[in-house]
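Incident review: delayed structure delivery

Summary: a single-chain prediction request sat in the queue longer than the usual turnaround. Root cause was a stuck worker, restarted by the on-call engineer. No data loss occurred. The affected request and its eventual output are reproduced below so the record is complete for anyone auditing the incident later.

Affected input:
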Amino acid sequence: MARKSIVTKSQKFMERVLLAKKEGRKVEYSSRAYNRCSLCGRPRGYMRDFGICRCCFREHAEKGLIPGVRKSSW
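Output delivered after worker restart:
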């Protein structure tokens, strides 16, 4: 499967989970939901605060695309 389809499948599942919680019913297979990078679809190294993986975070931080993040050096 291509990354885009995996990300889409994951997003659809998360939407179903949120809808079920909102309605107050139990979610079937709730352990299947997991976080993925919104840019590349990578499931590992996910940073919850930013919603992206560590690889994409590093690239965007170097370019200055993430507000409030600066490269530290000593």
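Verification: The mean pLDDT is 81.
Action items: add queue-age alerting; document worker restart procedure.
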